[in-house]
Amino acid sequence: MSFDGILLRNICEDLNTHILNHRITKIYQLSKYDLLFTVRGQRTHSFIMSTSPQYTRTHRTLNRYEKPDHPPMFCMFLRKHLEGAIIEKIEQHGNDRVLTFTLRSTNELGDLTHKHLIFEALGKDANIIVTGENDKILDALSHTGPFDGQDRTITPSAIYQYPNDTRINPFDETKVNDFFNKHTPSSIDDFIQHFSGISPLFIKEFLHRNHVINRPLEVFNAMIHEKQFRIIENKKTLYTHLELTHIEGTRIPFDDVQSLMDAYFYERDLADKRKQKAKDMSHFVKRQIEKLKTKKEHLSKDLIKAHDFERFQHFGELLLSYQHTFKKGDREVTILNYYTNEEIIIPLDVKKTPIQNSAQYFKKAKKLKTSVRYIKREQRKTREELAYFNLIDSQIEHANLNDLEDIREELESAGYLKKRKRITKRPKKASYSIYEDALGLRIMVGKNNLQNAQITHKDAKHFYVWFHVQNSPGSHVVVESGFPLEETTIRTCAHLAAYFSKMRHASSVPVDYTEIKHIKKIPGKRDCFVRYTNQKTIYIDPEEDIIKNIKVIR
Fold first, then answer.
1. Are the CB atoms for 362 and 377 separated by under 8 Å?
2. Helix (DSSP H) and strand (DSSP E) numbers for the chain
3. Ramachandran region, residue 323 (left: φ > 0; alpha: ψ -120 to 50; beta: rest)
4. Ordered per-residue pLDDT tens for the chain, 554 residues
């Protein structure tokens, strides 16, 4: 079900129950579209506002979100005007998808002031707006000018006006009774034309139920007050505040609207953010891989040509020996090749003398001979760079938002990406994932090169056991224990190493494991590339269900 006015009414009731008269203590802008508010009263709560085109919503949340290091300008504005304010009132505008928070605070002079935080869940026009006591707009997440072809102007200093909707509020009993006494809606368009804030899915359910008992007013009133929070999984996954009897599928019930919204949106929202953030970086990395593959092919061809320097050396020597048999202006000369005892045709430069033609071939031979060393050096660098970008490509595939930020910073530091302007801050320690196996042993898992280097070369003790998929890019996995290890621990670590690698979808993946003291850096290469000895090997079939059942500590 879409985020309609009836669902928003349930959310408004939940917010009034839990955060009314609470103080706003923290405001974070998680992304271009998303704001997270922390409020404190008898208990601490958080609620999110999102104007995302795919996931527009507001609700209380128990989920933990990754918070950015640097707040955008709109977030700084909100902190200045709203942090410390008390939430006095939370109201829905009719049954429209608009929620208004009335906030009480004191200004710099100590005078009592009121501001309004307005959330509009209006599809592509979704917005978050702050107004003063006289409804003058102080600022908004998205601005709409007077000449943008919109009904309302949303810019600082403009007077805020609610969206104009003259349709019937489904919770206005008098108008609803009057409507159903005169008319029975028979289609989705008929319903939408007369009622505010009702989704097409709600209407389909109404038509289905009413078809059975034919008591439209009774069915309608029952549905708008129904609180059956559930996710329905069929061809399409739906979230709803009522039982959808016209749709088959697996039902997952929830106690309240907050639990429903958290369950439906959290993973989808994170996946969408991760997809957006990884998109450009992934395209860049894949372009680099293609360029390096092309360069590798060209270098192989150049090396074959360069090894031909002996032929040009022989040409020079032969021309020098037979210089009396041709003259300046000749295009070619046919002479006996005393190296093979066969006749050979050698092309000539018509503008050069026999001696100059001979010198030209000697020069070309010397240049090619010198280039062999250069080409081999470039081939080595290209192979190393290709291995590095294949590793980065693998890491992007499994990275969360923090991991992606680490990868971007690594590419910026290496000069592959242009450095972004940012406030100078102390370097942060790479924050890798930590799991726990069935025996209670902690397992460190690196999802990018910074994390891999941190685990293997800094945090792991010399007797800890290190795991890595064999001959393929992947995570460094270290269990905080030495040998001997139980088979449960070995298999858990091997599953993690295989799953967070390029071999995730393969079967019988070989995973090597050895003690940290046998891991050595490779001179001249990045810290993420290592060589190891004294390893043992286990073969694993990576399974996502097994990974999901491993306890995550962080």
1. no
2. 13, 23
3. alpha
4. 578 999 999 999 999 999 999 999 999 998 889 999 999 998 999 999 999 888 899 999 998 887 877 889 999 999 999 999 999 999 999 999 999 999 999 887 778 999 999 999 998 889 999 999 889 999 999 999 887 777 899 999 999 999 988 899 999 999 999 999 888 778 888 888 899 999 999 999 999 998 888 889 999 999 999 999 999 988 888 999 999 999 999 999 999 999 999 999 887 877 777 777 788 788 889 999 999 999 999 999 888 888 888 888 888 888 988 898 889 999 999 998 888 888 999 999 999 999 999 999 999 888 888 888 899 999 999 998 998 898 888 888 777 777 787 888 888 888 888 887 654 454 556 678 999 999 999 999 998 888 898 999 999 999 999 999 998 888 999 999 999 999 999 999 999 999 998 888 899 999 999 999 999 988 877 767 889 999 999 999 998 889 988 988 87
Level-2 CATH architecture, domain 5-140: Roll (2.30)
Kindly report, as residue ranges, where domains of CATH 2.30.310.10 are found in the chain: 5-140
From residue 374, alpha-carbon distances to 213, 218, 284, 288 in Å are: 86, 85, 27, 21
Helix ranges restricted to H, 154-256: 173-182, 188-194, 200-213, 216-224
Q: Which residue has the tokens 């007013």?
A: 217
3-class state of residue 88 by DSSP: strand
- Is residue 117 within 8 A of residue 47, CB to CB? The reply is no
